[in-house]
Amino acid sequence: MTDISIIIPTLNRVRALSEALESAARVIDPDDPVEIIIVDNGSVDRTAGACREIKDRFPKHDWRYFYDETPGLLTGRHLGAREAQGEILTFLDDDVLLAPSWLEALKDAFSDPDVMLVGGPSFPRYEVEPPSWLAGQWVEFEGGRRCNPLSLIDFGRAKKEVDATYVWGLNFSIRRTAFETCKGFHPDCIPKPLQRYQGDGETGLAEKIKRRGLKTLYHPGVALQHFIPALRLTPESFEQRGFYNGVCSSYSNIRSTQAVPPRSWKDRLRPIKRKFERERILRNPTTEDIRRLYAQAYLAGFQFHQDEVRNDEKLLEWVLRPDYFDYRLPQGWEDYVSEVPQRSPAQSCLDVYPPKAL
């Protein structure tokens, strides 16, 4: 009988995925009641072949592979949960390496029947030496520290109860009963041309766990390394992450109020300086520059999403759905892709999705 189902959604990251799957295989004993589910979200690289190869190398492990090209991380998460046989559902990113202690620590955490959600530290594995401004992007909090744009978090070496929103999607383990009672994840990692359909991902599920008062545990042994490629260590990447998080926050706000507010006079008076020396920042950024760039993009993402929902009743219905177990995007999403301008690598996300004219 399967106790733990590890679910790994993936899209066109065969190299990182191969390393992640090997790290899982080396942590898991073939006799452990653990299955590993890979959900391929439409890859056109060697993802399927890599999954066959890892199965051949570790034939005694319980591997399962599924394919569904419906855009968005929600596809992999909910398809994986639906096919999973375990009581514990563990969602991992496809670019992580599990610590040797990971599985035994996870079992230890869930040995308490009151624990519904478990997370652990995620440490960086940088592809290149990080820029000097990155150190200033870490935030100290509650005896730990985090770097949200890179999904890095560390609460230290002791087990402790934590706020559910500090368990992030790259290392997210939940009892099936809690997953189903709280109605699963919200949309996440929607492709850029479809950003209007973006939601708040695991944050929405964590908020529901938090509101119900369900016990969430941080376990230092449930640790992993998160691969940070060079492309994520750039000002442009932090800007894009800010825009993305602004969209997520708008989604959360609309769900909490069950409506999208009209534009206020404050919105009309708020100056949004779209470029504020952007060229200089890209050449020689400081810690404060990156924070400002991120904040600027966050506000633009928030306003973009609010305006999109104001102008489309069907999109509002999408945002307010009680759950997304039917993980298909709204009808007509394919047509919308062709209407949205595509951004070149040199463009700011604010140049494609600027605040609408007043």
- Overall mean confidence score, pLDDT: 90
In CATH terms, what is the architecture of the largest domain? Alpha-Beta Complex
Radius of gyration: 20 Å
**Run of helices and strands:** EHEHEHEEHEEEEEEEHHEEHHHHHHH
CATH topology of the largest domain: Spore Coat Polysaccharide Biosynthesis Protein SpsA, Chain A
Q: Which range does the strand content fall in?
A: 15-25%
Helix- and strand-based class?
alpha/beta
Distance between the termini: 60 Å
Question: Quick one: CATH superfamily of the largest domain?
Answer: Spore Coat Polysaccharide Biosynthesis Protein SpsA, Chain A
Structural shape: globular
Task: Provide structural commentary.
- The chain has about 350 residues and is α/β, with parallel strands linked by helices.
- It has two domains: about 230 residues, Alpha-Beta Complex (Spore Coat Polysaccharide Biosynthesis Protein SpsA, Chain A), CATH 3.90.550; about 120 residues, no CATH class.
- Helices cover about 40% and strands about 20% of the residues.
- An eight-stranded mixed β-sheet has the order 3-2-1-4-12-6-13-11, with helices on both faces. Strands 5-14-7 form a three-stranded mixed β-sheet.
- The longest helix is centred in the C-terminal third of the chain and has 24 residues.
- The termini are far apart.
Salient structural properties:
alpha/beta; single chain; eight-stranded mixed beta sheet; Spore Coat Polysaccharide Biosynthesis Protein SpsA, Chain A; 14 strands; three-stranded mixed beta sheet; 2 domains; 18% strand; 358 residues; disordered C terminus
